[in-house]
Amino acid sequence: MSQYEAEIKRRRTFAIISHPDAGKTTLTEKFLLYGGAIAQAGQVKGKKNTRAATSDWMEIEKQRGISVTSSVMQFQYEGFCINILDTPGHQDFSEDTYRTLMAADSAVMVIDAAKGVEAQTRKLFKVCAMRDIPIFTFVNKMDRETRDPFELCEELEKELGIDTYAMNWPIGCGKEFKGVYDRQNRKVIHFTSNTNAKAATATQIEVDDPALAELIGQTKHSQLVDEIELLDGASCDFDMERVRHGKLSPVFFGSALTNFGVEPFLEEFLRMTTAPLPRKAGDTVIDCFDEDFSAFVFKIQANMNKAHRDRIAFMRVVSGRFDAEKEVYHMQGSKKLRLSRPQQLMAAEREIIEEAYAGDIIGVFDPGIFSIGDTLCAPSKKFTFDPIPTFAPEHFQRIRSIDTMKRKQFLKGVEQIAQEGAIQIFKTPYTGMEEVIVGVVGTLQFDVLEYRLRSEYNVELYKEGLPYEYLRWVVREDENAEPLKEEDLLLPNDAKLVEDYKGNQLILFASQWSIQWVTERNKGLVLAEFGGAKF
Ligand code: G4P
Questions:
Q1: Which pLDDT score, from 0 to 100, does residue 535 have?
Q2: Rounded to whole angstroms, what are the CA distances from 290 to 282, 315, 321, 336?
Q3: Which of 17, 65, 411, 418 has the most CB atoms around its CB within 10 Å?
Q4: d(Cα 261, Cα 140) in Å, to the nearest integer?
C-alpha cells in the first residue's frame, strides 16, 4: 500500500448529532482528550465563552457568545486521522447544520438516557438516514437516573425506524450505576465514581466470575443474568453490512461526563466505520482512492473578517490529495484556479495547510465565487457532484426595507445572503418587487439577516412573522410543464403556494395536518421534503 493510500485509509470523518444538552460537547471533548488534541477538559466548552474575546467573527457571535456556524475538528488517535464535524444545537441551529451532515461518512448520535429521542435528534437523524450512512448511538448520562434501557432501544427503533444492537448493557443507573456488560467479550466493566472528581474508574471482571455478585450486589447480578438472556434471545443479530448501510445502529451505554465507556466506544466505533465514502457525480461514482483531487463545497461562512467582507468556503475532499501548489478546476465557474489560504481546524486552532487527503475538510478563502454544492476537480478530469439537497425551513417572515428608496440594496443583500445558504427566499405571484418571504431553519438566522442587512447594506428591515412551519417542494414529472397556479390547487387558508428564485414551486403549510389535507385532496400532486437532490 502506498503512503498516499495509507493516509486516506486511516481517515474517519463523522458528525456528532444530538438534541441540545444530551452531552455532545462533553463527548467531543473526551474524544479530543484521548487524541491529545486538547490538554484538559473544559477547553471545548470554555471556547464558547472565550471566543468572544479572541475571534473577530461576526459581532452577533460576540454579543451572544455562541457560534453561528458549525465547526470541524481534526485529531489523531491510535493511527487514525479523525475529522469531527460539529452540528450546532441551541439557538444556532440552521440549514448549515444539515448541510454539514452531507460531508460526514458516519454519525454518532448522543441520546440523553433520561429523555430518549428528542426533537432535534429526530431531524438530524432523518438527514443521515436519507444518505444511508452508518449511525452509532451513545446513550449518555448513565450516572444519572435514566429510563429503562429496553424501553430506550425500543423507542429508537420505533421513532427512528432503525434496528438497534446493544454492544454493551448497563447495570443499574444513577447512584446505583454499577457499570456495563460488554456483550462481545462477556465481561463486566465495573464503574466506581469518585464523588468529587468528574471521572470514574473502570475495572473489568468476567461475567462468570463468582466475585461479580459480590461486587455489584446479588439483586443486580440476577437481574443482569436475566437481561443478558433476554437480550441474546430477543435482539436481532449483529450484521456489519446492515451497520454500514445505516440499517442497524450499534448502541453503547456510558457517561461522557465521568468518562465511563467513552474510550471503548471510540475504539469500537473506529473499528466499525470505514475509510472515506465515495460520492456520486451523475452516473459516475468518485471513490476516495481516485488519484485525482476532487471536493465539494458544503458550507460558506461569510464575514470571517468584517474589514474585508471575505468568506470561507468549507469543502469536503472526496478523492485524491489536495496540494496547495496545484491548480484545480471549479466546475460551476468554468475556471482553473489555485485555492488560496487553505485552512484546517485542529481542535481549537486554525492553521494554514499545504496538503489534505480524501475525507478531510478544508476551509478556503472565497472572494465570492463559490456556492453551496460546487465541485472542484482536477483540470484533466471534469465532472460535477450531485447537488446538495435544500432543506425545508421551519420559520418564515415577510420582510422589506423600511426605506423604500433602498429597495435595490435590500434585494441585493437578501439575494447575496440567500446565495451563501444562510436563508431561503421566496415570492408569491402577488409579491411585489420590494417584498420577500424569507425562510430559515433556526430563528437565529433572522437576527443574522437583520444584522447583516443593517451593517453591510445599510438597510433597516420591516418584518412580519408568518404562521407557516413546513415547506414542501412541488415535484413535476415534466420539467417543461406550465407552473401551477393557485386556482389549480385546493388549498386551505393556512397553506400558500410560493416560488423560489430558481423558479421551483413550493407550498408553505402551517401544520402537518394541512399537508395531509392538501395531499389527500389534490390527486396527482407530489410533494418532496427536500429540494434539489437525487438519492
Ligand atoms: P450538548 O453539547 O449536547 O449541548 O451538551 P453538553 O456536553 O454541553 O452537556 C450538557 C450538560 O450535561 C452539561 O451540564 C454536562 O456537564 C452534562 N453532562 C454531559 N454528559 C454527562 C454525563 O454523562 N453525566 C452527567 N451527569 N451529566 C452530563 P451543565 O450543567 O449544563 O454544564 P456544566 O456546568 O457541567 O459545564
A1: 41
A2: 16, 17, 9, 20
A3: 17
A4: 10
Please, which residues have CB within 8 angstroms of residue 443's CB and are 6 or more apart in sequence? 91, 395
Closest residue by CA, ligand 1 atom 14: 21
Distance 66 CA to ligand 1 centre (A): 16
Residue for cell digits 444539515? 98
User: Distances from the Cα of 296 to the Cαs of 26, 134, 335, 385, 425, in angstroms?
Assistant: 30, 21, 15, 7, 23
Average pLDDT over residues 79-102: 84
In Å, how far are 145, 179, 337, 446 from 176, measured between CA atoms? 9, 9, 61, 46
**124, 17 in Cβ contact below 8 A?**
yes
Q: Are 128 and 246 in contact (CB under 8 A)?
A: yes
The answer to pTM > 0.85 is yes
Q: What is the mean pLDDT of residues 181-186?
A: 91
Return the C-alpha cell found at 240.
456489519
Q: Is 21 in the pocket of ligand 1 (CB under 6 A)?
A: yes
Structure-block grid coordinates of residue 217: 450486589
Measured in Å, residue 140 CA sits from the centre of ligand 1 at 10
Cβ 26 under 6 angstroms from ligand 1 = yes
Q: Is any ligand 1 atom within 6 A of the Cβ of residue 20?
A: yes
Q: Which atom of ligand 1 is least distant from the CA of 90?
A: 4
**pLDDT tens per residue across span 239-254:** 999 999 999 999 999 9
Residue minimizing CA distance to atom 17 of ligand 1: 23
Pairing of strands 349-352, 461-466: unpaired
Contact 45 CB / ligand 1 (< 6 Å): yes
